[in-house]
Amino acid sequence: MSAAGSPVPNGANEIDYVRKPSFVKFFSGPRNAERLRLPREWIHRHGDDLPHFCKLVMPTGGEWRVRLLNLASGCHFCDGWSDFVRGNRIRHSDFITFTYVRGGVFNVKRYDFGSGCPPRDEYEPDVGEYSDVVLSPDIDSEDDCPPSENGSDEDSSEDYIAYRSVPIADEYPSFNVVLNKSILERTLEIPLSFWRAHLRMSAWEDYVYFMVEEKTWLVELQCVNERICVKHGWRRFKDDNALVEGVRCNFLLVNLDEVQFYVTFSR
Questions:
Q1: How do residues 1-12 score in pLDDT, each as one tens digit?
Q2: Cβ pair 217, 233 in contact under 8 A
């Protein structure tokens, strides 16, 4: 047993520990600073005996008591979650793993997105950075034009290349877009084959989040003739990131529940 009272894998108990229910979350500062939604599938499989109050235990032995609320949008860590975030210096784009031990106790670990390793102690907390987010799409910008007439959602397109290649974990799918004049002047289209492979079709009806380093943009999608493209928010996103023709954009799908893409550029 650890100082925090949670089982630690050791010897014969190691196999039993790794079989315990677990899940991973990508931490978005603007969305998750005050509460965190647990994956629906995990709740469906393992959430029957979860108490109203849970305990989050870090490798250092620190413990945080958080309240679990079942809201219309799903099951969330709420009261006490923000204290956990600040107390452990959780930063935007961190990966957090949760292993359910028993009786509402979760063993928690966090990993830096860039290195894939636990962040060093000298990382400074910066809760103020979470305010750097565009939470409303530019609905007045008239970028709700449909995709070009000759567009295609085929993976063989020179502009849209769907594949499973991510910098840290292979289970996170991504697709590439090479920006051309049509995309810049009209709007971004998400390959339909990619969407069908990794997301429920109805997810396009909800807002989608594009994250670049420590900033987040809210975008709204539309589905026209089985083609999913950005209805509102593309103009602001491309202008804020100074996107021009020839830039390759990599969209990493880091959250399937809330549809969050972590975007990087090759200029």
A1: 444 445 555 544
A2: yes
